[in-house]
Amino acid sequence: MDNFDSQTVTQETPPDDVFIAPSIHQREILAGISYTHHTTTPEAYIKDKSVEYVLGVDEAGRGPVLGPMVYGLLYLPLAAHRSLLADTHHFDDSKVLTPTVRSNLMEKLCTPGTDLYQNCGWATRVMSARDISSGMLKPAGSYNLNAQAMDATIDLIQDVFAKGINVREIYIDTIGSPQTYQKKLERIFPATMITVAKKADSLYPCVSAASVCAKVTRDAALQVSYQAYVSAQRDGDHERKSNLPKVGWGSGYPSDRHCTAWLKTNMDPLFGWGNECRFSWGGNAKDFLEGDGIKVDWPLADERDQEMRMTDFFLTAPMGGDVKQCATNELATWFGEPAGEDNI
Q1: Separation CA 241–CA 208 (nearest Å)
Q2: Which of 197, 208, 205 is nearest to 175 (CA)?
Q3: Rounded-to-integer distance, Cα 144 and Cα 317, Å
Q4: Is residue 270 helix, strand or coil?
């Protein structure tokens, strides 16, 4: 989403009355900790464990500079796939549903007694902005976003199999090349029919429902983070109260002018922002810090220090000798030098 029009901003900005699903773990969100949430197994499974299931996976928040990326997963009996999700409840790609419709569908999934609650199980993996950035900014080999997303998807699916759910078909919205992604998953889950496709969230109802789980969870996570930020500002001194943003941080996407304005206005020159921000995002956070932040020079470790071992600090060597060559004599000389014949 490089260019934001007003309609897109409205679709992507969390509504004030977003449904707070059980997948919102406030402590972890505010601390910048990634976590996984699973619902209990659906009542349909408890009644008949031999029923075959279909499973869909999709994400929300891959591109934003603010807030988590959330992977959503939903599974239900294969026989009810299209009739329940598409025909009865009209699930679709979360990006084409209004925030109110998304929120209402999520609430039905979480309400005991509804047909969605009785037949569907779902899960989310909330990948915090802090953890995304720390992975991408690793000094020794980046843990890129595609790899992080792939691992989150695999972990969620494996968790469902671990529950004993008889999953026969899996549908996933692609990361990169569909063929490469699908082949990797087929090696991990060889007994299951797997389809990885572009726009899977608009083709397969279970992926559409998974996208709703992911999107509503992300919306609520953003709302929780922003409300905590506003509360902290209001509890501060008068000067900080006067800097409270009037329009919030918008959708959290880099091309959203509300988001960009918030980043510029609320950047600490030394620490940047809080756990809600992806510091690795170029074009916004990273560029702002490099342009207006305080420069910090980190001393490089000496190569000789990297070669030292902890035990080297307890060894002694003859004048001009190599301390490592004395390692084998450490125990032999622990209580002093052996007495020679001349000393007897």
Answers
A1: 41
A2: 197
A3: 45
A4: coil
